[in-house]
Amino acid sequence: MRAVHFLPLSLLLLTVAFILLFLDRKFSKEFRDFHGEIWHYEDGTTDRLAKSAQNRIQSTACKIQLRNFLHEIAFKRHWPVKEVAKNCDDLFEVPSAANALKFRPFSPGTSHVKILFLLQLNGRDSRQLRRLFRSLFLPRHFYFVHVDSRQEFMLKEMLKVEESLRAEGFANFRVAKRRMATIWGGSNLLDLFLWTVAETLGETNSKWAQWDYIVNLSETDMPILSVEELEQNLAENRGFSFLKSHGQNTSAFLQKQGLHFHFMQCEQRMWRVAERRNLPVNLRLDGGSDWVVVHRDLALFAISDSLLPSQMRLFFSSVLLPLETFFHTLALNSANFCRRIVRRNLRFTNWRRRQGCRCAPLKSVVDWCGCSPLAVSANELGKLSLNHSQSKFHFFGRKFDSAVDISPIAFVERQNLRFRADLLPSQSAVFSAHWLNLFSALSPSDVPFGLNAELLTLFTSSIAHFMPSNNFVFQRLHDFHIYREFSAAPPQTIATFSVAFGHTNYLIEALIGQKRDSFATSSPTDFEVIDEGIRFLFNAEEGIEIGLDFDHKEEIFRTFPPLLSPSSKFTLKWRWVRLGIAADGRAKRTSPPAELLFRGPNGTVFHKMSVPSYNSFYGTQFAQFEFGRFSGVSPGVWSVALHANNSLPTLPMIASLSFPVFPDPSLSSEWTEQRIVRLIDEFFTVRDFCSVTEHLATQKKHLLLGEPISDFANCSELPWSTFFFDEKSVFPPFGRWAAENAFISQH
């Protein structure tokens, strides 16, 4: 009998225990997730990601931020925990009427749309930006300029533009005082966009709050069609936001976006810190381009305290590339906006994913891989034509890069200014020329990657020894530019510096080029390598090139000339022509494996380096080398030899290159100034000097100068000089200054 009563009692106790266990799991789940995920690292993925980030983070502040960030993840503070009302359940595609856009030709006086242009600026190409402003600027629109917090030179350039416009009576151009490090994929790209909306719409008594649309642009964007046509067509579709979608496969898109991971921005980097266990089940996720055209109503909704946007702002604070998904998802899940989306972003983008999707360029800023478009070249001009752009509803294009090809900029400029032809620059001697500042004494700490300001000053002071008279004493380096006479021309450099003669200072510019005979590659012609059945022909005409700040997408050097010191990091590149494809169809490589042999100034072998095969749209193969990783690197003339890496007992040499390495200016050295001058003379040539008039120099806020040196030409009369009048880069153009005064707007 006791056994009969024992079984129900046991079942009862087991049932109670199970219920208590269930309740314990329910009410302590957040704590145990936090315990396992964060402190004891029981989850392998989180353990690996969090510890990896912890080990690589440098600053104490960032380590504390990571700890707090992981704590928030554990308690789901980056998760929209509240149930958001489901809207548009039956709407997975925008109504066809919204997407069946019809281009409306410009009709004067019919548009009353005001646009806020958010300029998200990086880099140093202030001349190309002024050219963009010439095409984009109209008094009735607003121009809100954010300059990356790391770019001091560009900030000063944009403040000059703001000051010049205010002097002309225009108050619709503003440089933001708040600045962020807008890295690729950064969470603060969304912060910047939303802050701009709040900042401008918060000025209720200001004209800045009167815009109808916000359009974000970068320094490499250009209008393809006129601003007047943009106004016309936004007015025809008033109330709609233009958000280009990824296509049909949402799951694949979100996977590529890394949405299944938590990312944290710190130290100018996006750290992948944890796996995102789940995605919001009560939101339909969508995304596409982060270059958007957002109507005022949707922008206001995005910064409001309503449940949906406030929850989404929380969720997207730990998302990589948040601007590519935030507005798409917000609009699609709102009853007020899901039917007010056009799945286009009004832009032509020069995608070439085989070349533009690379991991290497992003390793320094993000724990992820990504894609970026390539610069538009003359080959793409057909895609920018008037009829094609109107039919495709393309009002803007990206990317445009004067360092790659300046002709597409001139092409779209003629097109977008056809209703304001008086602003078109004339076909002058410098119409196809371009200058890019690499160093400014007004922002001495802001220099491009790989460039040493002290070495640049040492180089320029040595260049001064090549002046016709030896009685001048070098004073100071003011500016250093890359100069191209036209896109395909070899790059040259222009040093702007002051010298003293007695008690008088003079401002000088020097045009400097490389001696190709010294940098020349020695190579047999028609050198062919056969590797695994594939034939590769070495491009002997281009040979081996050496440089700094290598752009993996465009495969060009962004910094010139290659001034190397014993601690420099540099890149060597060369090209191949693939003559055939292997029988098994393995075509995903455009170069064979190779070997590099470095020799120091004494001629002995310093280092051997294997170079793997590479797949390049242009047939380029490259190798990055860092002197700083080795000891015993001495200044002088170095050489590198490229060898075929195959099964032959002796690797045949394909080509070789000699290059100079200068002493480190920050360290004491046995090198005298005369030795440095001789090294420069071996590899470089000073093609011309000119002097600057006192009138121009004082306006540029240099030291007061004496009269121009009689032996030198006036810089304002030489087309290569940075002081020569460059109409296409003059902004603002209002007032039409005389040529000699207009340089204020181009420097």
UniProtKB/TrEMBL annotation:
Coiled coil: none annotated. Its main location: endoplasmic reticulum. Keywords: Disulfide bond, Endoplasmic reticulum, Glycoprotein, Glycosyltransferase, Golgi apparatus, Membrane, Metal-binding, Signal-anchor, Transferase, Transmembrane, Transmembrane helix. It catalyses: UDP-alpha-D-xylose + L-seryl-[protein] = 3-O-(beta-D-xylosyl)-L-seryl-[protein] + UDP + H(+). The keyword Transmembrane applies. One of its GO terms (biological process) is proteoglycan biosynthetic process. It is found in: Endoplasmic reticulum membrane; Golgi apparatus membrane. Pathway: Glycan metabolism; heparan sulfate biosynthesis; Glycan metabolism; chondroitin sulfate biosynthesis. Belongs to the glycosyltransferase 14 family. XylT subfamily. This is protein xylosyltransferase. The lineage of its organism: Eukaryota, Metazoa, Ecdysozoa, Nematoda, Chromadorea.
